[in-house]
Design a protein that fits this description.
Length: 210
């Protein structure tokens, strides 16, 4: 049992460690790690609470009918087994949903943007774009709850392999948009400076004397 707990702890650390999700360059500095706003996870929590109290509510509704049924040891053991499987499934559902929420993120560095999409517990896709390839950035906030809690989307148009880069339901989208604009401008200046430097001229060979 202790070995199983150790393996679960190690698995949890490995899957939840953001530093292991991408290869950071030697000169690269992580500026921001952005996740969806916490309010977007509230419906999952509410649904989980409903699933947790559902069997209890059903039991109290039909408790009188179940008294005779539960007095039988075999039926009682089967009910406990089914209840355990049910709550284990609910716990697994919550854990999977939380991992997808926690690891579905965007990483902003001084060199690039990374979109890490956690699709399932063991599947994810990672796409990236260099900051100097960012052409246009738009932030949008639509709806009552996004306006109250100040979260929304950031849409980037790029000249890279990923033409459209979207930050979904992130907090303070207008502020984050300004941060990315400033980082992109600095990265563009750096690359323009690198390309504008003249190449070293090859040394001329001495002419042979006749």
């Amino acid at each position: 049992m202790l070995g199983l707990v150790k393996h679960l702890i190690l698995f949890n650390y490995t899957i939840m460690n953001v530093a292991k999700l991408f290869n950071q360059k030697s000169y690269e500095k992580v500026e921001h790690i952005v996740r969806r706003h916490w309010i977007t996870f509230v419906p999952v929590v509410i649904f989980l609470i409903m699933l947790a109290i559902l069997p209890i509510g059903v039991y109290f509704l039909i408790a009188n009918s179940l008294n005779t049924f539960l007095q039988n040891e075999v039926y009682f053991a089967a009910g406990v087994l089914l209840g355990s499987i049910y709550y284990l499934s609910v716990t697994l559902f919550f854990y999977t949903s939380f991992v997808e929420f926690h690891l579905d993120l965007w990483i902003v560095t001084n060199d690039r943007l990374l979109d890490i999409e956690q699709k399932t517990l063991f599947a994810r896709t990672i796409s990236e774009v260099d900051l100097f390839q960012v052409q246009d950035i738009t932030s949008e906030v639509h709806g009552i709850f996004p306006s109250i809690f100040n979260y929304g989307n950031i849409i980037l148009q790029t000249a890279g392999a990923v033409p459209k880069f979207t930050f979904r339901s992130v907090a303070n989208p207008n502020k984050l948009r300004e941060v990315i604009l400033n980082l992109a401008a600095e990265d563009k200046k750096y690359h323009e400076k690198q390309h504008s430097q003249p190449l070293s001229q090859p040394q001329s060979q001495p002419q042979p004397q006749v």
